[in-house]
From TrEMBL:
Protein name: MFS transporter
Record domain Major facilitator superfamily (MFS) profile: where: 1-187, 206-398
Membrane topology annotation: Multi-pass membrane protein
PANTHER family cross-referenced by the UniProt entry: 3-PHENYLPROPIONIC ACID TRANSPORTER-RELATED (PTHR23522:SF10), BLL5896 PROTEIN (PTHR23522)
The species this protein was found in: Paenibacillus lacisoli
Length: 398
């Protein structure tokens, strides 16, 4: 008997694709700040470089996701994005001035950020096609992140931070090759975008409340993401140890993904989101206290009960509120709030706080934003009534 992967090659290729593109994410999130420091940029300049991507992605996520919904294709859009990434990374490797790096990375981010909501949309559609759980596919992204966190860490320890760009080019090329083998998926029937339908969803008080809490929680998450590697380096960690720290966080979320896939539907979304936000408060409080790389690595294991719970539960909640024909656009809106708008604020002001006030004040600021999100989630039943009828579709199985 043929294995299920042979019978369903679209799942196998999609898992390989997620493994690679989420592996590439570790470069942008964790090793590019070290590359910028290698070029001689200050923490404030690094913060600006981190912030420009989320600002651009506010527009790029909507542009490419609406194009995907409009033309009924995800695969072709992904191929265009990967080709653009590779070409711009080649340009980035040829310059070292802050002005040119800022310009090129701005263009690069236009093709970089939309890949992840579109990949998640394809995963959701493929899982629904075979009656599978979304996390059984998405977990390969976490495995790729964990694998490349270690591999890239040791490569850059041996070769130097200057090779970060060439590793990014190689991963983009591999992802592009795998992308040609993907089976195309659509979040809905192709046709003219019904913008009024999206506006109706955004008029929902529950949706606006949800996005507001996501935004507050994401600020702290993105602050940690942008300056974790720099914090570790300042405490004396080399890039190999930094890779292990990233491995701890990415591996820790995998068991949580599986647990939520098996038992998550026994719990309502709101209590799970409240638990995740409270754990974020504790996580950033501890990050402000520890003063050794090993201590930071230990705290990073809380990624499982923070991001692991929050991400899966948020997608489950989002698919209940957004009709399936707007799935790609709904994911883009979530990504704009979770990554783009929050990344813009955390990068621009986080770098200033880190440079002027120090690491402890930096993490206590992140904790304050998480505490505000926790308060918003606790008060939700008093302030916002549920609007399950906002979508006529049944929720996607997670």
């Amino acid at each position: 008997m043929k294995s299920s992967l042979v019978k369903r090659p679209d799942q196998a290729w999609l898992r390989a694709f997620l493994f690679t593109v989420f592996g590439a994410m570790v470069l942008l999130v964790s090793y590019f700040p070290l590359y910028y420091r290698h070029l001689g940029f200050s923490s404030t300049q690094i913060g600006y470089l981190y912030a420009i991507g989320p600002m651009i992605s506010i527009f790029s996520n909507m542009f490419w996701s609406m194009a995907s919904d409009r033309y009924g294709t995800i695969k072709k859009v992904l191929l265009v994005l990967l080709a653009g990434q590779m070409l711009l990374a080649l340009c980035l490797a040829a310059t070292s001035s802050f002005g040119m790096v800022l310009f090129i990375i701005t263009c690069f981010y236009f093709f970089y950020y939309p890949i992840y909501p579109l990949a998640d949309t394809m995963s959701i559609s493929t899982a629904a096609k075979y009656g599978k759980n979304f996390t059984t596919i998405r977990v390969f992204g976490s495995l790729g992140y964990a694998f490349f966190a270690i591999v890239i860490g040791y490569i850059l320890t041996s070769a130097g931070s200057s090779w970060a760009i060439w590793v990014a080019i190689g991963l983009a090329l591999i992802s592009l090759v795998i992308g040609f083998r993907l089976h195309d998926q659509s979040s809905g029937a192709p046709g003219k975008m019904n913008v009024s339908g999206i506006l109706d969803i955004l008029r929902s008080r529950e949706m606006l409340w949800f996005f507001a809490c996501v935004f507050l929680l994401a600020i702290g998450h993105r602050m940690n993401e942008a300056f974790l590697t720099i914090s570790l380096q300042d405490l004396g960690a080399d890039q190999g140890l930094i890779g292990w720290a990233l491995l701890v966080s990415s591996i820790s979320e995998i068991p949580m993904f599986f647990l939520l896939s098996l038992y998550g539907d026994r719990f309502r979304e709101l209590p799970l989101l409240i638990i995740a936000s409270l754990m974020y408060v504790l996580r950033f409080f501890l990050m402000g206290i520890v003063d050794t790389p090993v201590g930071m690595m230990a705290v990073q294991a809380m990624h499982s009960v923070t991001f692991g719970i929050f991400y899966v539960t948020s997608l489950r909640y989002l698919t209940r509120l957004v009709p399936s024909q707007f799935r790609a656009t709904g994911m883009a809106l979530f990504t704009i709030v979770w990554s783009s708008a929050s990344g813009l604020l955390s990068g621009a002001f986080g770098g200033i706080i880190f440079e002027e006030a120090g690491r402890t004040a930096f993490y206590y600021t992140a904790m304050a934003f998480s505490l505000a999100a926790f308060a918003g989630l606790i008060l939700k039943p008093l302030l916002v009534r549920s609007t399950d009828s906002v979508t006529a579709d049944s929720p996607t199985e997670f």
